[in-house]
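notes to self, project folder thing:

trying the whole complex as one job this time. last attempt i did each chain seperately and stitching them together was a nightmare. three parts in total, labels are on each line so i dont mix them up again. if this works i'll redo the older ones the same way
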Amino acid sequence: MKRCLLLLLIGMWGAIGMNTLRAGEAQPMADDPKVEARLAVLAEELRCLVCQNESLASSHAELAEDLRREVRKLIRQDMTDAQIKTHLVERYGDFVLYRPAVKPLTWPLWFGPFALLVLAVWGLWRYLRHRKALVIQRMSEADNAQAQSLLKD
Amino acid sequence: MIPELGQFSLVLAAVLSLVLGVFPLWGTFNHNTSWQALARPTALLQFVLVALSFACLAYAFLTNDFSVKYVAEHSNTMLPKAYQFSAVWGGHEGSLLLWMLMLTGWTAAVALFSQSLPLAMVARVLGVLGLVGIGFMLFILLTSNPFDRLFPIPPDGRDLNPLLQDPGLVIHPPMLYMGYVGMSVAFAFAIAALLSGRLDAAWARWSRPWTVIAWAFLTFGIGLGSWWAYYELGWGGWWFWDPVENASLMPWLVSTALIHSLMVTEKRGSFKAWTVLLAIAAFSLSLLGTFLVRSGVLTSVHAFATDPTRGVFILIFLAIVIGVSLALFAWRAPEVTLGGSMGVVSRESFMLLNSVLLVVATGAVLLGTLYPLIIDALNMGKLSVGPPYFNLVFAPLMVPLLFILVPGTVAHWREAKLADMWMQLRWVALASLVLAIGLPFVWGSWSAGTALGIFLGMWVALGSLNNAIERLRKPGRIGGSFWGQHLAHFGLAVVVLGITGVKSFEVERDVRMGLGDTVTIAPYTFRLVDMVDVNGPNYKAMQAHVEVAKNDQVFDVLYPEKRRYFSSAMPMTEAAIRSGFWGDLYVSLGDPLPGDKPSWSMRVYHKPFVPWLWTGVLLMVLGGMVAAMDRRYRKRNVAAQLKTAGESLSSAA
Amino acid sequence: MKKFLIPLALFMGLVVFLAVGLQRDPREIPSPLVGKPAPAFSLPTLVGDQPFSPADFKGQVWLFNVWATWCVACREEHPLLVEFSKTQSVPIVGLSYKEIQAADQANGPLNDTDKLALARERSLRFLQRLGNPYKLSVMDLDGSVGIDYGVYGVPETYLIDRQGVIRFKHVGPVTPQVLQHKLLPLIRQWEAS
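result (full assembly):
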């Protein structure tokens, strides 16, 4: 008798528990959160090829869905991010990367701004040093000229 | 009838801009004062005619006149009236007419508010504005006429792109254009100064309020665009380094440099050639932006429908306007006088550093935007340059800029001592450092990037507050220029803190939800309680009811929607956002999912500090407006003018 | 003072680049696979039980054409391809790309066998009606072979040589100009080798 009651109680508890699971914590869209996390980061670096300038992360285009599926497949095969990017570049070219690879073709792009900064700051430094001397020189020229004209009067 | 009136009005306006561009300038070469005097009335009449033309186009939209091709392409009988009006600038042709309205508007404003300027100067400035106007008028009349008729007349129009059916998108283009076009005034002043051969402090004083107002509009326009993208696109992003976004950022960066440079030229008579070059550059970048959006050379989500003929026209116009300006610069700049002396450490040198950093940043953005085009033009392949590049390159350039901002505002003119500056700023530095190291711990995740962002934001914010307090201690009137400057800097700090906060602490959950399901982003819980169908004026939508609770207390309900407009195949997401001081809760409804229990994909975000971004932008805009309204720009009395003229003479010695 | 001419010089350079840029199409993506071996695959064919693989055609020059019955632009080039197949000796292999679309599964998901059957049935009807230029057609239902070939839009056409190396790719419908000025000369060139 007691055992039956116990079993009944356990059964009820189980049933209630099952119901709360039904309307409960929402499940993540992704089947595998770890894979999705890696996809989220990678997809921001990849371009949707058929869109007007959108990343693979935000595009709804069909090819974008296919490529995201492909990237998930490659993540599951334990490829590194660099390997996945190379895989896509082999098929679609450099166009698919939003972060251009650093190679001789893109050296001006990657190092240009920094070089420009260094050059500009150096130029500014030189200009400020030079200018002080220049103003003193011109002022003294002006003083001389003024002195001359006064003397002439 | 009305569209023909509109077109005729436009043709008349084009003739007037020809008159405005030619006669007053000629009058300054042959000293004919009556030709010079033509400038003001011609400018005013030109504006009236373009406004009339604009009104005719608006009338065509509001009366659903689908015999006009442009109206048929961008409007619809079911489109709400407000959007029927904003559809006027929803496409290429109409947006150009808006541009023209702004240009003639600014020209008329200069004609009205330049009473204290010598006539020859007014003639030159308005003349240059007239010449710019001729180019745009011809472009509209020859390649992009909004009044072209359509036959046979369709029963209904194609409707305005649903993305544009939104209040934010209604005012974003007009504000942006006010900014872009406003840069033409500084440009015109610079060219006028080059033409006259007299580049003095007075020119800088006249240019500055116009430039600051244009800058404020541009800031507002860019901020609006970002805000719109944030709440409309459904994934909470607000800047994508899209070519057209970059096209608005570049004139903003350069005009910021210009404002600071004008300050120095006005006060000490220095940097004249550099300031003129910046003024030319700011407007040139506006024109370049027009080219990039409408020519099709770069792929962008913002691009108008393109046509190679239009691209060629704009490029030729661009080449002439900028080419002639830069040639004029090369000719006249060597003759410019040097201005006052300045130490290696001085407010002037800080301002120059400000210019250098902003121009290098502009160069970086320009390089990144155009690099794919350059490589393609050299037949060396096709590559993409996107947000990862720009984020990596732009942020480090902004760090030194934000850092020098504070010492720049306390440095003395002519000669400053670093030791004195340190004494003034050491508590600000210490407080910023402590907050930068401590706050991330309090908020849950420490990283060097977060700390750096907080340090720079606090440095500028506390520095501005410190300056204000120090100044209030001293006697004497404080002008609009002072408040405006510190308000704008403070606004910038708030933006920096906002960006740091949201990038460091935002959380996203991408889940499938059925009725009754919850998702938690501590301490908030979101529960889907209902899903209903709603009908809009020109769309049908699925609307979710999501309860939001904090620590188990429900305090709000959000209503994200997925809309299907009758005119478009693409469904539109309308995210639901609850904004608070410390951040936003953002819910975006996705597609229904297959399964026995009805469920939908939902994206739920907690975005801390995002409202600080928009608040900061508004503070910057307010700062600009306050600065431009400084009494000395509105002073008519001669004594004050003599005084400033005397100052500039003595400082030029 | 020559330094004041620098801004003008830089600007003129920029104008030249922009002018050249006006003549380029920023959305056209050249294929990095030209000059590389055609990626291997083994797919079921439209008719018959034997799967097809590119290695099967080693020793001859052939065209690989990506198409689908839902593709509107494909219909532009279809008559030209049919004509080509009648007059030329170079075989065309079709790649039926993602024939099964979302609309086909609106009333419930289909399993792989049903998808293949439906795709074959629809494609055969299409070819019967409009003419069949293909020596054979392979069925790429999920688009994964398309990704291996760098397909981003339909139609696309590849020219593959005797060693199985991709020698040319055309994106978009094959027009008479493309046929005359690019494809035929290249076919002759690679047949001779």
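what i see at first glance: Chain A is about 70% helix and 0% strand.
need to look closer tmrw
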